[in-house]
Amino acid sequence: MFDGQDMTPPTLEIRNVTKTYSVKQGLMGKRKPLTAVRDVSLSLRKGEVLGLVGESGCGKSTLAKILLGLEAPTSGQVLVDGQALGGQNRLELARRIQPIFQDPYSSLNPRKSIADIISLPLRIHGIGDAASQQKAVRDMLDVVGLPARVMNSYPSQMSGGQRQRVAIARALIMKPEVVICDEPTSALDVSVQSQILNLLGELRREFGLTYLFISHNLAVVEHLATRVAVMYLGRIVEETNTGDLFDASAHPYTQALLKSVLTPEPGLGVPDTQLGMAYPNPIDPPSGCAFHPRCPRATDLCKQRAPRPVPMRDGHVECHLHDPETPMFERS
Amino acid sequence: MTDVLLTVKNLTIDIPVGAGTLHAVRGIDFTLNRGEVLCIVGESGSGKSLTSLAVMGLLGKRIKCTADVMDFDGTALLKASAKQMRSLRGARMSMIFQEPMTSLNPAYTIGDQLMEAMLLHGNATRAEARDRAIELLEKVGITAAASRLSQYPHQLSGGLRQRVMIAMALMCGPELIIADEPTTALDVTIQAQILRLLVDLVREMGMAMILITHDLGVVARVADKVAVMYAGELVETGPALNVFQRPLHPYTRGLLQCIPLPGKTERGAPLGTIPGIVPSLVGQVSGCTFRTRCSEATPACRDTIPLHADGPHCFRCVHADGQRHDKKESA
């Protein structure tokens, strides 16, 4: 899709990545394979923000872990600036990709002071002396909306929102190239959320940062992302630029997700998503298209055969309805 | 004719802390009618959850809670004995807590936990309670309800557990439901389904619901009445339509500018922010607590703040329309 336009490699590229876990069901159960991420390919150019959306259990966080080098993919490759991840020095990798995790209760060391937590990346990389590190921490605290007096506090003395701000400060203090934001604002109050989103936007423009922004808040994704990928049961079922995805989504799952967003417009009531409740069990995925049991437009073909990715606009969609090779009567 | 279920006047909650007293909730008033959904919206630490716990009589003994009136259908909640409160809680008023992962007891089956309140209140036999549990699980959209009764919480997903919590709150047919961030931990698809269900139940059964949330999208879609809470005070209250279409308090206006509005906010453009942080509520608190973050603040904001009312739409601000008009002169 980018061939011929720009020969510089994407800042971050995921090539055919699959992650299969082996899980035991019950005490005496046999081990079964659980494919959390199934043959996923994505690429992010410098300065882009890729919003990754989908319900819990769809494999978003597993993908984030693979990108951070916390999990090795079962197969496939992750490339940063055209270089495969495995070959890179870990310190170098940490300089370039930094995470902001979802749960600020488990992502901060309870025995370290806030100043220690935020300055740890600087100390590991040997940047500046103690005084300049302290100053950097103080500046970063101000940037994330925390008073300087919390420097000597511990995570247990802080609210969830404050802790997440510490986690964000820790990730941003290295000014990394790629930031993997895993639900970074879902724990924050709206007034703080907008500050953090603005901050992420400013830093992106200023330093050309690239974000992978994982969130289930679609209004936030629409606002911040330049591209959006929709994930369902380990597959990217639709991926395109933000405008097209929100204005004219193609996949029935994307459409259902968008319909369930509660925009702050009074008088409209709560939408009826007609999705049914049950997200499928990833150990025992449905036949054919994984979405067919919940899809209002599913046909027999969807039950039998998995759809293939079809190029659409400047991305792709994976649905029989949009595949030109699907017989016409199946697409109506 | 309105059918008032809950009246709260001048509710004040003080928490003793090391350095003095934390004035967590200061003189709030609201009423709730049957068949109505009141959304209390505000940021963390604004006192939303404390207010709901006060209504339920679940504040600890250390916490000092006073009110001029706190009346639930003729019962003065603050004067009620522990026994009276026990007979109300779970039966006529019940609560849905925020965390479905931690609010269920992992050692008991779903069925035992669902039936507990009904059996405790002594208004059903075990068989009746079981039937009621199955009926409600089906109502909240859980398939194979009968077989779920013997399952343990860890066997259910987050969405299912939250549905179980809702079914549990409904077991005794309460008149008042207090839901504290009932959908915050859930996916958008499940959130929409659960909120739809709660609102339908309120309308169908003539219950009343207090929904506590910080999600303005949820408030707009669900609330009949909105109460905006800031630092322990209700700064603006009124019908949802009025508050969203014509927010009068600077804080409410600020909150609404903080969230991206699909189709209205330009993608990628900076969102509105509210600078500064919530002030400490320990010790003497006077004047408008929002003045340190407010773009409309004047020296008069340190004084007692009047309450303006435009029909049912009220707000607390020194400016009669929530805006100062002397900006040009002072600039």
Automatic annotation (TrEMBL), chain A:
<keyword id="KW-0067">ATP-binding</keyword>
<dbReference type="GO" id="GO:0055085">
    <property type="term" value="P:transmembrane transport"/>
</dbReference>
<keyword id="KW-0813">Transport</keyword>
<dbReference type="InterPro" id="IPR003593">
    <property type="entry name" value="AAA+_ATPase"/>
</dbReference>
<dbReference type="InterPro" id="IPR050319">
    <property type="entry name" value="ABC_transp_ATP-bind"/>
</dbReference>
<dbReference type="Pfam" id="PF00005">
    <property type="entry name" value="ABC_tran"/>
</dbReference>
<dbReference type="GO" id="GO:0005886">
    <property type="term" value="C:plasma membrane"/>
</dbReference>
<dbReference type="InterPro" id="IPR027417">
    <property type="entry name" value="P-loop_NTPase"/>
</dbReference>
<feature type="domain" description="ABC transporter">
    <location>
        <begin position="12"/>
        <end position="258"/>
    </location>
</feature>
<dbReference type="GO" id="GO:0016887">
    <property type="term" value="F:ATP hydrolysis activity"/>
</dbReference>
<dbReference type="InterPro" id="IPR017871">
    <property type="entry name" value="ABC_transporter-like_CS"/>
</dbReference>
<dbReference type="InterPro" id="IPR013563">
    <property type="entry name" value="Oligopep_ABC_C"/>
</dbReference>
<dbReference type="GO" id="GO:0015833">
    <property type="term" value="P:peptide transport"/>
</dbReference>
<comment type="similarity">
    <text>Belongs to the ABC transporter superfamily.</text>
</comment>
<protein>
    <submittedName>
        <fullName>Peptide/nickel transport system ATP-binding protein</fullName>
    </submittedName>
</protein>
<dbReference type="Pfam" id="PF08352">
    <property type="entry name" value="oligo_HPY"/>
</dbReference>
<keyword id="KW-0547">Nucleotide-binding</keyword>
<dbReference type="InterPro" id="IPR003439">
    <property type="entry name" value="ABC_transporter-like_ATP-bd"/>
</dbReference>
<dbReference type="GO" id="GO:0005524">
    <property type="term" value="F:ATP binding"/>
</dbReference>
From TrEMBL, chain B:
<keyword id="KW-1003">Cell membrane</keyword>
<comment type="similarity">
    <text>Belongs to the ABC transporter superfamily.</text>
</comment>
<protein>
    <submittedName>
        <fullName>Peptide/nickel transport system ATP-binding protein</fullName>
    </submittedName>
</protein>
<keyword id="KW-0813">Transport</keyword>
<dbReference type="InterPro" id="IPR050388">
    <property type="entry name" value="ABC_Ni/Peptide_Import"/>
</dbReference>
<dbReference type="GO" id="GO:0005524">
    <property type="term" value="F:ATP binding"/>
</dbReference>
<dbReference type="InterPro" id="IPR003439">
    <property type="entry name" value="ABC_transporter-like_ATP-bd"/>
</dbReference>
<dbReference type="GO" id="GO:0016887">
    <property type="term" value="F:ATP hydrolysis activity"/>
</dbReference>
<dbReference type="InterPro" id="IPR027417">
    <property type="entry name" value="P-loop_NTPase"/>
</dbReference>
<dbReference type="InterPro" id="IPR013563">
    <property type="entry name" value="Oligopep_ABC_C"/>
</dbReference>
<dbReference type="GO" id="GO:0005886">
    <property type="term" value="C:plasma membrane"/>
</dbReference>
<keyword id="KW-0547">Nucleotide-binding</keyword>
<dbReference type="GO" id="GO:0015833">
    <property type="term" value="P:peptide transport"/>
</dbReference>
<keyword id="KW-0067">ATP-binding</keyword>
<dbReference type="GO" id="GO:0055085">
    <property type="term" value="P:transmembrane transport"/>
</dbReference>
<dbReference type="Pfam" id="PF00005">
    <property type="entry name" value="ABC_tran"/>
</dbReference>
<keyword id="KW-0472">Membrane</keyword>
<dbReference type="Pfam" id="PF08352">
    <property type="entry name" value="oligo_HPY"/>
</dbReference>
<dbReference type="InterPro" id="IPR003593">
    <property type="entry name" value="AAA+_ATPase"/>
</dbReference>
<feature type="domain" description="ABC transporter">
    <location>
        <begin position="6"/>
        <end position="256"/>
    </location>
</feature>
